[in-house]
Design brief:
The structure holds three protein chains of three kinds. Chain A is built from nine helices and no strands. Chain A is mainly α. Chain A has one domain. The two termini of chain A are 31 Å apart. Chain B has one domain: P-loop containing nucleotide triphosphate hydrolases (Rossmann fold, 3-Layer(aba) Sandwich), CATH 3.40.50. The chains are: A mainly alpha, B alpha/beta, C mainly alpha. Chains in contact: A-B, A-C, B-C. The interface between A and C is medium-sized, with 30 and 28 residues.
């Protein structure tokens, strides 16, 4: 046993294993995935109920409402991203593993997107139709939501890592993430509005993609640092 | 002091309290480091500091001649950790949990069946982990250590909440690991008797 | 050269040095602010479009500028504290946060007052600077809330440092996105960006105010950091000697 050159199990192996594990866990606890999804649908229903069902208003507000609802639903699911790992000691094992922590953090964010962002993107056309969004706009909406929710998962993982284990960490997480998420919301929602008005959407989509790339490269390192600090 | 694992001039603050300072130790293959002290004296913090889960105020840990701060990955390839929070997911069963472990660190998974058999866990493999008793869960944590190809075992209170049979099993596994040129760091507030060269650190 | 920084990082040395610097900073700051105020209020020409009310830019622009610089100071100090584990740097970050928040609030207040005659309301979402400042205030609140939520000072330092650095990276992005967003909706803006040939009689008082505010911020920051240092090092010998000098009857 002593003194041999050890092989770390493949890098992608660790990344993939964390995603698989979280997907398996979600399979055994479907509520974790469904609850935020229902929340998304309910928030989107609040506006017509509160503001009135006039078609012009619906069409005008549709993109914004879908985006805000997606943002809130994502925040809801972010709260518990690291919570169970922190509480049962898995976080200790993950941090002590020879796998690079940023990569494992990226895996958690990826699993989160698959379980939260992707379902939102897939359900969004249904919501969009209730807001009388025409079919071609829905395509732009789904693309913007896909890029935006990926960025949110990456950014939100940092916030979740910073607040895991704190009392009233939930409200704090929202307070931390919302200002940082504003650019995503702004570009995402406005791009869809522009599409609805027939204006070019390239700028918005490029921005969302660029932000996504930035988050992909930087966020995992911040998440890893935050996890180590919170786990002390 | 030199050894495969060594700590030099360690000082740890917790809030305002200084838990310990100018603490040094060295450990070689085949040796057991026993960290003793009453509850709250800082044993867990010392172990977590050695493993790298928290930072010391001063001093550093060395593994194989290199500061662990400079080469975390190398150190962690040879490290496996056990504490009372066993670090397994309650919804997954035993095998699924150990499967995940094999992706985190080098493990000899072909020994899985034998290890499960030896630790008396054979009939529990299909159950969700949370249905296992505390003693059984601890034995799965021991399985993790047996499967990991790590020279350094770090165990925080491995004997607590175990019956006599459980405690002697832990002692037997530690002794075996030490005979195979492994190292072991154990924190315990109870007296521990293991037939192996033992160094002690006592915290106030 | 390194020796200078090394000494600077030592809390007792900083404590003494800061004490000597503060009065100078206050003096310089007050002098510049007085110059800027007098020159701006009485001697600067009135802009054709706006009336005398515009003179509030002499407070608004410096406050906004400081609100952003303070965040950068905070983020850089926090980063130094996190990477090089310098405790004093963390104290600087902790001290800068509430100051930055107050300047941000001041910028919002003066911006709102300024815009009121033009907009007819106290708030205009279409103004990019005002909206950016609001998000800035939320960033400060988040930082201070995170600090407050963590009991252990060292842990709070590190966690908030990560947050500050993430925020610093996002600030230019936030500004850019708000600009883009408001440019789509042609709303009235307060300050025409980089208007060519801003009258020197307007420019110099403005620069004076900005510089003056910077010195005042510096003085306030040094004072706050001194307090932070005292609190963090309250158990050390040099602080005890300050409170009860050796040789004096207790």
């Amino acid at each position: 046993m002593s003194g041999q050159e050890k092989q770390v199990p493949g890098l992608l192996g660790g990344f993939g294993a964390i995603i698989r594990r979280d997907l398996l866990l979600a399979w055994k606890r479907p509520g974790d995935v469904l609850n935020p999804l229902f929340f998304f649908a309910m928030v989107a229903s609040l506006f017509p109920l509160a503001v009135g069902p006039s078609p012009e208003q619906l069409m005008l507000n549709g993109p914004g409402v879908v985006w805000v609802a997606a943002l809130l639903a994502t925040l809801l699911s972010l709260n518990s991203l690291f919570l169970s790992d922190f509480e049962d000691g898995s976080l200790d094992q993950i941090i002590l593993s020879p796998q690079p922590l940023p990569l494992l953090g990226l895996g958690k964010a990826a699993a989160h997107w698959l379980l939260s962002g992707l379902p939102l993107v897939l359900v969004s056309p249904l919501i969009a139709m209730t807001y009388r969004m025409p079919g071609d706009i829905i395509g732009v909406m789904m693309l913007s939501l896909a890029l935006g929710t990926i960025s949110l998962s990456l950014l939100g993982a940092i916030g979740a890592a910073l607040t895991v284990g704190l009392n009233r960490g939930n409200a704090l997480l929202s307070l931390l993430i919302l200002p940082l998420a504003m650019p995503i919301l702004i570009f995402g929602a406005r791009t869809v509005s522009l599409a609805a008005a027939g204006d070019p959407v390239a700028a918005g989509i490029y921005f969302l993609a660029a932000y996504c790339m930035l988050a992909l490269t930087l966020a995992p390192f911040a998440t890893a640092a935050a996890l180590k600090i919170s786990n002390e | 002091m030199t050894g495969l694992l060594s700590g030099k001039d360690l000082c740890l603050l917790r809030g305002d309290r200084c838990l310990f300072q100018q603490l040094s130790f060295a450990l070689n293959p085949g040796e057991l480091l026993l960290v003793e002290g009453a509850n709250g004296s800082g044993k867990t913090s010392l172990l977590r500091g050695i493993a790298g889960l928290l930072d010391f105020e001063t001093g550093h840990i060395s593994w194989d001649g290199q500061k662990t701060l400079d080469d975390f990955q190398g150190f962690r390839l040879d490290l496996v950790w056990l504490s009372h929070r066993v670090g397994f997911k309650g919804e997954l069963n035993l095998l699924e949990n150990l499967q995940f472990e094999s992706a985190l660190r080098p493990s000899s998974m072909q020994k899985t069946e034998a290890v499960i058999e030896r630790l008396g866990l054979a009939r529990l493999t299909g159950l969700p982990f949370r249905y296992l008793s505390a003693g059984q869960q601890r034995r799965v944590a021991l399985a993790r250590m047996l499967l990991a190809e790590a020279r350094l075992w770090m165990m925080d209170e491995p004997f607590t909440n175990l019956d006599k049979a459980g405690q002697s099993l832990v002692a037997e596994l530690i002794a075996e690991h030490l005979t195979n040129d492994g190292l072991c760091v154990v924190a315990s507030h109870q007296t521990v008797e293991i037939d192996a060269p033992t160094r002690r650190v006592t915290l106030q | 050269m390194w020796r200078f920084f090394h000494k600077l990082a030592s809390p007792p040395h900083f404590y003494g040095l800061a004490a000597r610097m503060i009065p100078w900073f206050y003096a310089a700051g007050l002098a510049l602010v007085i110059y800027g105020t007098v020159a701006g209020l009485f001697y600067a020409p009135v802009d054709e479009e706006m009336n005398d009310g515009f003179r509030i830019i002499y407070v608004h622009v410096p406050a906004a500028y400081i609100s952003m610089s303070a965040y950068m100071v905070m983020a850089i100090a926090a980063g130094i504290g996190l990477i090089w584990r310098m405790k004093l740097a963390h104290a600087v970050a902790a001290g800068a946060a509430p100051l930055g928040a107050w300047f941000t609030f001041l910028a919002l207040l003066t911006g709102s007052i300024w815009g009121r005659p033009m907009w007819g309301t106290w708030w205009e979402w279409g103004d990019p600077r005002l909206t950016s400042e609001l998000l800035m205030l939320f960033l400060y609140f988040g930082y201070m809330a995170l600090r407050a939520a963590i009991d252990d000072t060292a842990k709070a330092d590190k966690a908030s440092a990560v947050l500050a650095m993430v925020g610093a990276v996002n600030i230019p992005i936030i500004h850019f996105s708000v600009e883009w967003w408001t440019s789509l909706h042609q709303g009235p803006t307060i300050l025409k960006e980089g208007g060519p040939g801003i009258h020197p009689d307007m420019l110099y008082p403005l620069l004076g105010m900005i510089l003056g505010f910077t010195f005042l911020f510096g003085a306030l920051l040094l004072a706050r950091v001194r307090t932070e240092v005292l609190q963090r090092e309250r158990r050390s010998r040099w602080v005890r000697n300050l409170i009860m000098p050796a040789g004096e009857a207790a």
